[in-house]
Amino acid sequence: QITTLINHKDKPKRSDKTLQAIQRVGQAVNVAVGRFVTVGEAIANENHELKKEMSVACIEARRAGETIAQLTDVASLDHPESDSHITIFTDKTGVVKAARLLLSSVTKVLVLADRIVIKQIITSRNKVLATMEQLEKVSSFQEFVQIFSQFGNEMVEFAHLTGDRQNDLKDEKKKARMAASRAVLEKCTMMLLTASKTCLRHPDCESARINKDGVFHRMRLALEQVIEIVTDSRPNGENEMAPVSIYSGIKEFKNKVEGLRENLYFLSKENLSTMLEVILEHTEDFTDSAYTSHEHREHILELSKQAKMELEQLVSVWMQAQNHKTKDLMEDLEVAILKTCQCMNELKREVHSAATSLAADLLKYHTDHMVLKALKITGVEGNLEAVAEYTCKLSEQKEQLVEMCRLLRHVSGTEPLEITCIHAEDTFQVTGPQIISAAETLALHPSSKIAKENLEVFCEAWESQLSDMSMLLREINDVFEGRRGEKRVYLSLPRPGKHNANLKALKPVKLDTEEQAKIAKLGLELHLLTSDVDSETEKWEDQENEIVQRGQGMSSMAYSMYLFTRGEGLLKTTQDLFHQAEIFATEGTKLASALHAFSDQVHDDDKPLLLLEAEKLISMCKQLQITAKASVQGKSATFTKVDACILKTRNVMTLLCQLLPLCCKLLRKNKAGNGCLKPAPPWREDRIRTGTNAHTPERRAETFGIKSLENHVTNMTFLESK
Hints:
This is Alpha-catulin. The structure is a single chain. The chain is mainly α. About 75% of the residues lie in helices and about 0% in strands. It contains 22 helices and no strands. Helix 16 (about 515-540) packs antiparallel against helix 17. The longest helix is centred in the first third of the chain and has 46 residues, at about 90-135. The N and C termini lie far apart (about 65 Å).
């Protein structure tokens, strides 16, 4: 909008339409700045150490926004009395100065807010670490239950903060690392619970202690990595040395080779030879692997030899071309470049085939989880000899899967997928020995229910990682075949509707970039409406009022739908969106019921208007539900349905923006009489039923699987009381 103002053409004749458009843009900038600054000032009030800096930046931004609004107030230019009025037409430099001040002050506010966010995450991590230390030292079950309840709450807070941060990260590599660390914390939280309970029940059991120590150690490493990503630093100032994959090596090598067409002197032959040597060293991971087939090994060795020969030929022609740049030599150079690149493409294809065929075979072979089942059975029987036999088999399986991850990393094709492969390798490396120690504990205490539950948790983590590997393999193949770009949905994040039996048969669809662009304007309108609804709910004195809480819940869901239009947030597929729209409509209907109950308490003069608005809301919600439930087939029809759902959600939110101030006004008006509402139904229970959370909205980004954690804590409390 600022660019539009500064770049507008100074025409001698200005139509009313042009003047009105300029004024609208100026006002829109000022309103947007006002909203932005309001948030900045709220942050400043909560963080005293940066309050002064933040307040100054907010004042500057507000002043700049007001200046832009004044300079674009051009609607009255045609009137003689406004000749002395300074506008964008008489003082364009004023707009430029105001725009510069605005952008610099807004940037300053963002940087200060970012520092606060980083501090919040570090503080939250420190609280989690302190509570973990207490958990490690507890000796009684009752004390453990109390401290673990606190630990659960702190992990929820940490999940929200890091989820927000992950959404904000622009670097896909950092996003993938953050997703991996958060996945470790999610799974380890449950492992920590059962491993600690087992240790408390069997304090003299060495294998139980080893099992528990392994979980604590892994959680600390994951917490440390989150802080490294957030602060963009490494311990002791060391640089991160990521291993180079064959794919990235070949890509860089080909770029250098093809660059010889433009410049014969920009690199040395030694440089090019070294790059090829590094690539061929990495192919030894395939040729030396016991799991690579004889056929693949022979092909890789043959292509490696051919690559060396092609490079020798290329260097020979290249050196000649540097001395004598004739037409024939340049043609020979082109042929040598093409042959070298073709050879590297064939090598790339061969290692991809070797890695993915091995992965497909291993995942198919281990899909029945026979070793895990056998460990559970022999553990319950107390058969130490059989447990030892099956732990050896699990160790073999672990080595196979670790090798598979290493080879897949070489052919993953993108940095985020590379990081996912490294995360998978670490998971198998760590979880394997933990399953073994859990199985040994169960074999030593075969009647222990908690030891059995502990083994189940670790086995589930193993099975979950195997399931994720199947999805990862599909993504790697998609990238290789050009069906996917750099951006991806990370496997480790929880997905809504994942465990809903009704959704299993439906094929999930995502919006492509073009569709996101088409729906962006509608999504932005929805975003602005959620801000309006939030500001209206904040005006209510009674935040526990059912109308407020329903409104907050609906705003939260609408915000998650806005994030979907940007390809972000918790809703990943169109099916997720339609499911969210249904819940949103249901919540709207419940709000209408609350409005009917409220109408009984208002004066007769005001009642018809309130009831009319409530009926409108019911009608709109019914229409949205019908649209969300309608069955469609084909890409075009699906997009039309998405568009309709977002549009109808926007209409409901527009009505909500009118309803909330009306109700607030009527409540204040009736407070002198019988104006307080009947007690609202328990909102917490309602939130669980509808799948929303008004106080921790979905805009707080993806969180851990906290619900199951809360259930565990509840069950523990119940057992303790028994």
